[in-house]
Design a protein that fits this description.
Helices cover 41% and strands 14% of the residues. By secondary structure, the protein is an alpha/beta fold. The structure holds cobalamin and iron/sulfur cluster. The site of cobalamin has 39 residues, from helix 1, strand 3, strand 4, helix 4 and helix 6.
Length: 495
């Protein structure tokens, strides 16, 4: 380490659930950009980059000599390495101020500050202004910290509104990101999925829905962020982010923010302004996209994967969750099929479907609908799926317990009614899971009781096996009736 590096004010660390994990939180890049725009020197380092997170922490603290180290703690899976990283920083220089933030840190702020003397400050909720205040030595907001022997837990008084998002955008990635190309372009080596490398484009915050299993459901947004409604960014700022990533050679952009009910204005105006004919898109649609939105995706991008998450093909389970404010708005299987037909009508649009195994109310009989309907869709609409060896376009993922989910009476009641017991609730439960996961030790992956776990595993295996073989004649006969109900959109040509 003879080279001389310019020291920075803030060193951001992307924590990892396991060595080599490539995922980089968009929030870290945005926070670093914001700090940079405000005249402070910031650097983002990914702890997954060299398959030895401890070495990466040590080397980079020595290299950049930061005053503050900010460690990502959005995903509960990274609890262990995030806290270990903070501990290590203090062993190098105890005067460096260690800060963490994100969904998980916010939810467990009190537990972390009380048990981890090596974490100085937890920023709860939106972190732009609170972090800037810390750097400027101004009054702290949204923070949990120790003062003498007391724990100070400030209320969340800073919550970004739509207007606060104006002007927030990525700055020079090469400047703020250490090993930029390696991080942004390392993805294809590890993934089977097409359209990689891709960059995630942040388009807004919050959610209107209350999906039973989600740690960012509308009710959690109030607790974690004091956020009452979803907000969108400016199209102009989003375009700047796309431009910034494209300078690094990335041409595929992923959107995963769709909290609206029948209001697609934001995406329609964004896609209208995208000029390059080389860009690809992955659009995670939380509801069913309209034909107009699909058309605008086809016009703006070379290849597009549209993902939809009906969660289950069993209409009564889906309806129950939606009607009881425990899921996204209800749509019928007929409406879903109509939408798939619309996707198929555009040659450059491909479909991915996501289901969840282990939803409360699910029975062996209701799960069977998933198998039958998935097989039917795969066969009937085979041309709508992207062909790639070993790549599945209809997926069934297991339910996994996150912090800040299943926290109201209605969801708890439903869980008990379904014969399930949640085993992962407290900070220690989540910390233990994260640590065991990192060391590949036996662990309760889904956070549920043993019999629910066995059932979920069996169903996922059954589903995957069924997706991977051919010959689904029976299902097609059984499901033929649905076609009678489908209102075909005659204006679109079929693939
Ligand atoms: C987009 C998204 C993704 C993208 C991430 C793209 C990317 N490159 O960042 C993808 C699809 C890859 C993804 C993956 C996963 N996700 Co996700 N994701 C989201 C989603 C929908 C939006 C997050 C977002 O972009 N917000 C915009 C940013 C700018 O805002 P923000 O994150 O709130 O950040 C602000 C504050 O939280 C804070 N902050 C955030 N980070 C930090 C760090 C520091 C140091 C500080 C000080 C502050 C701070 O300041 C930020 C600026 O104001 C949320 C749900 C939601 N609506 O929030 C789930 C969510 C964050 N994901 C979640 C989960 C569980 C996952 C997965 C584990 C799912 C899985 N089982 O595989 C994986 C993670 C895999 C891994 N390696 O660990 C949970 C997390 C629950 C929890 N407490 O752990 C959430 C809350 C809900 C959900 N179920 O999806 N996700
Ligand atoms: S739509 Fe559902 S899964 Fe997605 S962020 Fe909202 S509550 Fe969570």
């Amino acid at each position: 380490m003879n080279e001389k590096y310019e020291s920075v004010d803030v060193l951001f660390f992307q924590s990892v659930p396991y060595e080599g994990c490539w995922l980089l939180s968009n929030a870290l890049l945005q926070l670093a950009s914001f700090i940079d725009q405000n005249g402070f020197k910031a650097k983002v380092v990914h702890l997954g980059i060299h398959y030895d997170y401890k070495k990466t922490v040590l080397e980079n603290v020595m290299k950049y000599k930061p005053r503050y180290v900010c460690i990502d703690l959005r995903w509960f899976g990274t609890l262990y390495t995030a806290l270990e990283a903070a501990k290590l920083v203090k062993t190098i220089n105890k005067n460096i101020v260690t800060i963490t933030g994100g969904h998980t840190a916010t939810y467990f702020n009190k537990e972390i500050i009380s048990t981890c003397s090596f974490v100085d400050i937890i920023i709860k909720g939106d972190a732009e202004l609170p972090l800037l205040n810390i750097l400027k030595n101004e009054e702290r907001v949204n923070c949990t910290f120790r003062k003498k022997d007391n724990v100070i837990q400030q209320p969340i008084t800073y919550t970004q509104e739509q207007s606060d998002l104006e002007g927030l955008h990525l700055t020079n990635l090469e400047k703020i990101l250490d090993s930029t190309n390696e991080i942004l372009l390392m993805q294809p080596k590890q993934l089977k999925s097409p359209l990689y490398p891709r960059a995630f484009i942040w388009s807004g915050k919050g959610c209107n829905y209350n999906c039973i299993y989600c740690g960012a459901r509308a009710d959690s947004q109030k607790i974690l962020f004091n956020r009452k409604r979803p907000i969108f960014r400016n199209v102009k700022d989003v375009l700047r982010d796309i431009e910034e990533f494209s300078k690094m050679g990335i041409v595929t952009f992923e959107f995963d923010f769709d909290p609206f009910v029948k209001d697609e204005t934001f995406y329609l105006s964004l896609f209208k302004t995208i000029k390059s004919s080389n860009f690809n898109c992955v659009f995670n649609s939380w509801t069913l996209p309209s034909a107009e939105l699909l058309e605008s995706l086809q016009n703006s991008f070379k290849n597009v994967i549209v993902t939809m998450s009906p969660e289950t093909f069993n209409e009564s389970v889906r309806k129950y969750l939606a009607e009881n404010n425990l899921g996204r708005p209800y749509y019928s299987n007929v409406e879903l099929i109509n939408c798939i037909e619309n996707v198929r009508a555009f040659n450059n649009l491909y479909l991915e479907l996501y289901l969840v195994a282990g939803l409360p109310l699910e029975t062996d009989i209701s799960f069977k609908t998933n198998l039958e309907f998935a097989n039917f869709i795969k066969k009937r609409y085979s041309s709508v799926f992207m062909k790639k060896q070993g790549y599945r376009s209809i997926n069934c993922l297991p339910l996994q317990i996150e912090p800040s989910t299943f926290m109201d009476d209605a969801s708890n009641q439903l869980v008990t009614q379904s014969g399930m017991t949640i085993y992962r609730k407290s900070y220690n439960d989540f910390y233990d899971f994260s640590k065991r996961d990192f060391f590949h030790l036996p662990r309760n992956v889904f956070g549920l009781d043993p019999s629910s776990t066995i059932k979920i595993k069996q169903n996922v295996n059954l589903f995957n096996k069924s997706m991977d073989k051919t010959g689904w004649k029976n299902n097609i006969i059984r499901l033929k009736g649905i076609f009678k109900k489908i209102k075909r959109n005659n204006t679109l040509t079929s693939r």
